[in-house]
Records
---
Amino acid sequence: MNDLPFLDLTLFLPLVGALVMVLIPKRWEALLRLAALVVTTATFVASLGVLASFESGTPGFQQVTELSWIPEWGIGYITGVDGVSLWMIMLTTFLMPLCILTSWTIKTQVKPYFILLLTLETGMLGVFSSLDMFLFYVFWEAVLVPMYFLIGMWGHGRRVYAAMKFFLFTLAGSLFMLLSILYLYFASQGSAAAPTFDYRSLVGTPLALEVQILLFLGFFASFAVKVPLVPLHTWLPDAHTEAPTAGSVMLAAVLLKMGAYGLIRFGIAFFPDAARLLAPAIIALAIVGILYGALIAIVQHDVKRLVAYSSVAHLGFVVLGLFVGTIQGMSGGILQMLNHGLSTGALFLLVGALYDRRHTREISEFGGLARSVPVLAGIFLIVVLSSLGLPGLNGFAGEFLVLLATYQSYGWWVIPATFGIVLAAIYLLWAYQRVFHGAVSIEANRNLEDFRMREYVMFVPLVALIVAIGVYPKPFLERIEPSAKQIVRQLNDASVIPETRGLAEAP
Amino acid sequence: MQGALTSPVDWHAIAPELVLTAFACLVLVVDLFLAERAKWLAMPLSAIGVLATGAATLSLVGSERTTLSGSYEIDAFALLLKGLFCVIGFIVLAISFDYFRSGIRYQGEYYFLLLCSLLGGLVMSSARDLVTIFIAIELISVPGFIMTGLRKGDPKSNEASLKFFLFGVLSTAVMLYGMSLIYGLSGGATRLDRIREAIDGSGNEPLVMLSVFFVVVGFGFKISAVPFHFWAPDTYEGAPSPVAAFLSTASKIGGFVGLLVLMFKAFPEVADIWRPVFAVLATLTMTVGNLIALKQRHIIRLLAYSGIAQSGYILVALALIDPSSPGVSRQALESALVYIAIYAVMDLGAFAAAVAYARRGGTYFIDDYAGLWQRSPVLATLLTGFLLSLAGAPPMAGAWAKLFVFLATINAQVYWLAVVMGVNAVIAAWYYLAVVKRMFFEAPELEGPVEVPYFLRAVMGVAALALLVVFIYPPVITELAERSIL
Amino acid sequence: MARSYFSQYLTIGLFLVVSVGLVMGTLQLARLLRPNVPSYEKYTTYESGIDPIGQGWAQTNVRYYIFALLFVVFDVEAVFLFPWAIVFERLGTQALIEMVIFIAILALALLYAVKKKVLDWL
């Protein structure tokens, strides 16, 4: 059982599915939907195999596959999971079938839509599981293309603008990352026999501090755009708002995590000294992000835009956790990545459900919906509460750990961060109140259809997971912690004093 | 000289050229005896000729030999490029078929000229002698002048032809002047290896510099590097589009091959002189090409400017060459070869799609690409594939082409050039995506489906598939390139 | 070496100056020596003793360019043929075959011209 390469199976099932779907005639829309659902569910099952064969308590990479790809450049196909990537992979595969289900309402261009979604899944999973820097970069870029089309073709309103902005922002960031990766590749020539892109050999490459800072900033440019950290966030509200529901879910739940994941896996692991040095600045940015995102969210009159800005705030917590330099912070940050994926993903799905019923996202167009759609309102409430970190639901564990760690390492810095939680309560509950409570002022809101079977299927597992993590986070944390511990050790271990390999002068 | 005249010729070594020459003549003669309705048969005949040339090239694989007393060399480098020229020729033929069959009277002459120009490319791949290089570059260009003007009734075509001709002649004159200086300097040597020996340690720096400068400027016109690019967009726009496709690939690559061979074989000892020149040229070419491309509304002009920008990346490889560290030079040359090969296929693909669309229910204006996805999903998908590849995005081979140039640049520790390339890649992505955006995100303004001829569709499909395969398994091309180092 | 290289150009330059000077000098000298009696007859264009008729601007039929082209074809052929003929005996059969190919290609051009009816006048 353990011999089955579950990880690679998970990685390529969606792509194979997409290729098969190319052969299905585009008129058979029902079959296409069903096929997409079957493929993503099968992928989820395969990823359960990854989870089952994951050994908790060990920090290193597991289930590693190693194949040669371009041997002369030291580029290989290397994949593996550890505690950091495991939950990201699970999150992706778990949310994907839900995205397919919520896309049942897509009526135009069904075939390319599902094919792009499946390709996107392979791209995202590839980002989380590749252990070869080149492979990572290729997947990183590969995610861009399907997302660009998803936003541009099936989005709303200013979709074209949003799609272009998304693409160019991310591309610009990732090119700096590429330069850093390539520099690292040649720097590894010193420590290894031949230069390599293998992540495991690259970690611990000795670099002079000023080189570390430059390279770190190269990676940071790419990841900070993706996370996003203020002031590089401006693509996010546009992209999230204009994307179709499934696209918004994937953007918020997974694509943003790619940035945070990159910061952990590469930013901190490759350049611990630079990360340590720059940590206060990054933490400051994170706190600014928390407050800024929350304050902007309060004044939004578009539900989806509100959720989008709440992501800016929540991801601020994640980055805060990653850089405070303690195990609680790191574990909390990683757990918060998972939680934000679930909660915000669920919020976008719910906003999508509202949009399908009313074809508007303006808060003022709603009001008193709790009477016509009680189930939807109830689930919305649970998700809102989880998003603002109510104890007993998933959001609490992560945010609590992050704040605790911030207090331990940075003292009073925790105050503005905590204020972010209060603000979250304000914008989320206020929006909830305006949408679901009060008098029904608009006739169209009176007789809305409540959840259908398809939607029950979507939300029951989501809510179950939200509650499960809130009540019993141990199985999640115990798989995260060994890896978190190792990364924190790398971050704090100042003994890695580099042999100087400075930036040589350009001719 | 007596020896040169009587030395036996290695007929097998020049078999590809002979086959192509024979077919070119055959096309010309057969065309004379064909009825007006049957003139299109010249195209299948030419295609057979190109395939036969390819076969002759394949029969030489694995052999290394020189003939014509050292001025003609068959090695992996030459064979790779000959193969590439055959591929280019075949794709251009596929693009031309529909275009010339309906509309232009001079079909037979066109195919004859095309084969002649292609022959120039084949000769260039093997030329290791100043005179041979000169003849090759002229053999590529001169038929090009005529092909550009084939749409006699169209003033734009005439303008294009005249511009191309004047700039071509000017560049030839400049190049020839440089070459004559070299000839004088090296004491009457024309073979590149002799020139290299003569220049090395001749202590004649200013003159060597001057002659290299003239040669580079001459080639700069041929490869339309900024600031010698002015003719290119007008010429491409006015020329029959398949000819524009040919000029932007075969003709340009011919120039690059000549430049690579000269710089590697004749002037490596004075690399310090010309390396910065290429760095500046590369920067200018990339940046100016991209910035002007941003404003284009005509797809052929867009491809022309983007092609200018793309050649900047190949120039980067020339700016990295350093005889004192063979590893860096090797990698630079390898990346240039990979780039050339991938560029040829993806650029031709984009041209093919543009021609197919303009001929079947569309125009050349980018605005009219709106909603192409709904009118012809196949064409829109293929064109998107080629444009993404040109932009250097996965999942197409263009990503690797750019990555290898980056890799070589970082290895040579020329970081500023890498940053310039990075910024340019983003600018380029903008205008490529602008076309994609129109095709997919906007509603169609023109009506009716777009039916691409089956043959052209098949060729485009194979080209796109090839780019995809190279992306998935790049050793297909990198190993070839690695073996083909000069 | 550079100096000697340039000094060769100097020789050419001197040669140019002297040759141009010689021509100009002779013309000026003639001007000084000859009598100067202008008349209408002397100022008309010289056309072998016949009185000039019409404008100096005359048009030629464009179709002559084809003859010019064909003339170049065979003119160039001759340029190659003469040196070849001189050393032909020493070069042997291979040279013969090569020259036959060369002439055959030129013959193709002629064939082309004939089939395109450029030799049919009007």
---
Amino acid sequence: MLKTLAVVIAVIATLVGTITSTPAQKRGGVLKFAVPSVKPGLDPAHTSTGDGYMLTQAIFSNLTRIDDHLEPKPQLAKSWDANAQSTVWTFHLQQGVKFHNGRELTADDVVFSIERILDPKTASRGAKALGPIKKVVAKDRYTVIFELAGAYGDLPLQLGNTFARIVAKENVDKLNSQPIGTGPFKLKEYSPGNRVVLARNPDYFEKGLPYLDEVHQVFLKEYAAQVSAIGGGEIHVMYLVPVEIIGQLKKDANVQVLEVPSPSFQSIEMFMNQKPFNDPKVRLAVKLAADRKAMLEASTGGHGVLGNDTPVPSFSRWYNKALPQRERDVPKAKQLLAEAGFKNGLDVTLYTSTGRPGMEEAAVAFRESAKDAGIRVRLESVDITRLYSEFLRKPREFTMMQVNWFGRPTIDEMITPFMFTKSVWNFMEYSNPRVDALLTDALGMTEFDKRKRLYDETQKILHDEGPWLVAYFRNYLSAIRTNVRNYKLIPVQYVELRDVWLE
Amino acid sequence: MTLGAYVLRRLGLLVLTLLAISLLVSGIFQLLPGDAAEQILGAWAERSGATLTAMRARLGLDRPWHEQYLGWLAGAVRGDFGKSLAMDVPIAPLLAERLGYSLRLAIPALVLGVTISLVLGVVAATRRNGIIDHLITVVTLTGVSVPAFVLGSVLILVFAGWLRWLPSSSALAEGSGPGYWARILALPVATLTVESLAYITRTTRSSMIEVLKTPYVRTATLKGLPRRVVLVKHALRNGLLPTVTVVAFNFGWMLGGVVVVEQVFNYPGIGSLVLFAIEQRDLPLLQASMCVVAFAYCVANLAADVLYAVLNPRIRY
């Protein structure tokens, strides 16, 4: 009897303990989130901008979740494993997950959603972004098997990306305006270009989440309007903060500027098959002539890190630390140019644009520093859409291109689309069989150290002979009101709202 | 010709106008670089890739443009404007919602603008070249000379930024009902009113001056009628005629042409929908919205002409 009583008391004590020690998170409230541009449509197959990723991430769920260290974490899949060659992957699903219409999510929905993205008729860019998936099968109600065409270690990470959201098949024709997902929020009001209202999903499968009642994504085109609105408490989050306005925001004690290094960068690119950049000496001379620190300062006001002529930033765990940071060396650059037959210097045109912050500023800094080495740069500032859709795709002699690239979560995506022979964004027509072989072999490896050795060698090659001058990486900056809690910046600019709360 | 026949003929012309507008929009659109499929896939769409081809097929952009246009027209005649390419929703409800916003903005702004302008115009005319006349001229001309986006931004700064009485954007307003509408309409209506004052005031003033010089007004004054009666019953009725046309034009402008004002306040009217359709290369949506705007202009002008005849029995069509 006494024993029973003791147990009962212990149980009560534990219960009380858990109740009183529940974290201080507060429920409720409306979070207002300002974005400077919007692209309509909520179908995860076709969203391509940060404002859309944010909405689909709140409405839908993925098998995995990419966390703020860019690691895959469980979401709809509570665990996963692969065979030794990492060609067959098995994902074990959470049970009892409900779509917003009340139906339970099963392995069939996962198969349907992934197959839809891979189907050419869907016309999703994600068809090529999920990895070499050959077949997706529902083994039973809560188990999904991915059979791959080749070994692929990044599958769990890729299944957390924006294309791989799991959708309800009964509603697939209305995804753009009336989406049904399993995410922490439901769509309540959709008026793109004005505002989008998300409401708490009371049946969300992670118990107790989300904390917020509603999230309003509001479109405020002018940063000045956003600064005034966040100062007055009309909005809680500014999704993007250009460096010019950091000073204004920091004056306000109720506003906090958040900053994280990101793999986004602006490269100066040289056509491999056009004079004079077909000569590796000229490419190296350009890389040596550039004053990286001046370019970083001009583009970001110091809110970034130096680049080392590869798309891999120095804070990445994949970065080749054995590579010395390239420093400016004007005499060496001049010497290389002379060896390449340009004793009297070189005249080139650099295409740039004001369409993305910091581009033209860095181009001007580059022009000034290149002058000392005898590289005379003429700047041609064009509309950003024309730069990408027209000039970048037309190799020409004595021409360089400046491009703004967004950061990507996996090491393979950081390099392969740009540097693999004839890859989608390999506009510079770089081709090196050794690099192709390294990238192919590395893709299938799951063991970090072995895999990293291959990427280290790739970086070494690109650092020396690659077509890109990567002078700097730009930090990702947002601003929040100080009463917004648990808001974490994810370097690839995804937005996680399920565990954010308002004080 | 009777008034009825005249109205019928004008309505016939209206249909032709709408047809011409939609054809023109569709034709000009072909000259713009890029299409909706490229917009949806983003800046990094592969130009020649299978993805782009598949997206064009999905949206029906793989058909020749005259076929696309005729398809749209066949639907529009039956009242079906089709689907927005960018938003993937039927256009008619979307347009109806935006039209509701635009009417709620245009009607109060027009009523306010016309009322204030008429009073100012008449006052200025009766005190011609006096201090008050000059004051009215300076104030109204200043109003129209300040660009709408500057005036709008200043109003936002004062009433949303400093005083915090009103939301700085329509997207930030809360609630529903008359209170909600008053909050989101106050600043845009004020801006449009100020912008429209000068023209209507000037027109009213000059026509009133002409009318006040006429013998019949002098007769009315000389036979001892009170000043107020002379002005309102005798002079104003004739003096209003040119104003009516100006007001009609203003209505069309406020309904669809105030893109800048709608942008400044993030107000979701027809004007911003037109801009959105152009940016997203959404031709069906653009054709439909432009037809609505053109329709509003035409109907307002027709109403003005009919009113003209009613106000002035000497005019017959």
---
Amino acid sequence: MAVLYHTLIMAGIYIILTTSLNLVAGYTGLFSFCHGAFYAIGAYAGALLTLKLGFPFWAEVLGAAFIAGIGGLAIGCPTLRVRGGYLALATYGFAVIIFTVLNNWESVTRGPLGIRNIPHVKLFGMTFNSLWSFTLLVAFFVFITIFCLRRLVGSSFGKVLLAIREDETAALAIGKDIARFKVASFSIGAFFAGIAGTLYAHYVRFIDPTAFVAQESFLVYSMVILGGRGSMLGSVLAALLLVVLPEALRFLGLPSFCAVQLRQMIYGALIVLIVIYRPQGIMGKVQRF
Amino acid sequence: MNRSFRWSGNFSGWRDVFLQILINSIIAGSVYSLLAFGFTLIFGILSFFNLSHGIAFTVAAYISYVIRIKLHLALPVSIALSILFTPVAMLGVYGVAYSPLRKRRAPSWVFVVASLGVATFMEALITFIFGSDLVSLRTGETRPGYLIGSAVITEVQLWTIGVSIFVMVLLSILMKETKVGKAMRGVANDGEMSGIVGINIEKICLFTFGLGAALTAIAGNLVSLEQDLFPTMGQAALLKAIVAASIGVGGSIPGALFGGFLLGVVENFGIWHINASWKDGIALALLILFILFRPKFFGGETER
């Protein structure tokens, strides 16, 4: 049962990450290889707000998400002047810089030692210290995230994002300030990644920089591509698939070292196969390629 | 990649430290230039932002390891075979993963995603085969380095600088004087036009991809003579290649040299006063500064 709850919790956290990155990478069509950095900012900000400043949980989640959102603004404003591969690179650069800062700014983040003893979530007088209660909490945030993002992409704001992806010049020509829309989608994506980070910090109760290496960003990005750019359901399915897969491999009785490498190989091969044979992803509708 | 400067207490003043850091920068710079030129060739001619570029570096090092340590062949043989086999392996990857995309004329971001998949797959495969522990190519004792003033340079490091200069000279002859070099520059300049005048673009692409892998293999061999191997070593190489290639003007040898050496200098002087673990952060901060102040050049205002 514990394995099931653990899988569900991790799947929930990745669903939040993937759907929020889908707003940036799927709907707006921007390369973003720094979603893991926002996730890390959320986790550290959440942990520090509760440990150092004694914030209650609801204030902590909002605070951490806002700080991650500001991180999104900080990387969004300068780098959205570049396109394609260079945007991929600049965002990846941001992810590496955040990792370096977490690893070296020892007076605040305790560097490689990480932050220990993050308390259980307390809300409305209840303590979420059992796996099933935490699963419910994560499920609540998953629903909030998907609800907000769906409302967002269904609105005129979402239509502009799609227009930017399909034809930037045309979107500009009808008078849309595309830079502002891009930065907005970036910070909204970062905001939700921050929520995922806080949940992760409270779930494992010990965070160190190695949990947020740049590979994390690649993983989430490939979940978006796998699910289909611009499909929230696709993102949910892809996140579920890629989280459940390694747990399933564990039941095959492989030694854990082999299982990890096998999982990575399957990720890599899946991405290549998807872009070759089904470029629109599991649920994507966009046939333009 | 981490030729971090170590304080040994023998230096009499900042001049000596300066000299040592300068030497370290030149060594790092010559490796970075090789990596950057390979990357920039593939980017210029195939319009392919190749995230699997670092894999060639790792593959080369491990091929050398197998030949040298497992098969007990001599060092020159292992290096030569590694530089030969790495492009073959990478062209195999090209055939499986990238050729179908080129045939479909997929947009360039699709290649970025595909190369991400390739890099993930290959890295896991190498870890699966060789394990994640460090392995070493070095056999026997390390010889003491030469002294220049009070700064130290090892024989391998002298080789590194010499080989890089030699390769760069060869490359400029290739690009300027030979038919294939001219064709490559033609495709980089205007692919459609080159096709019309009868250049076989697909062949040039294959050649470029192989050449890029070979250059990376040379860098990989030079680095692995001094440092231990591990399956994710290519990530650092990719990072340096991209940063150096982006700083230098894309596609040209002087550009790659400028980018490589500037990165080497900034990195090594940057950690003079702060902890060496900030090195990657410094490299990327340099890149982001370049992106901020020269947006035109990164496709900010003109479509690439």
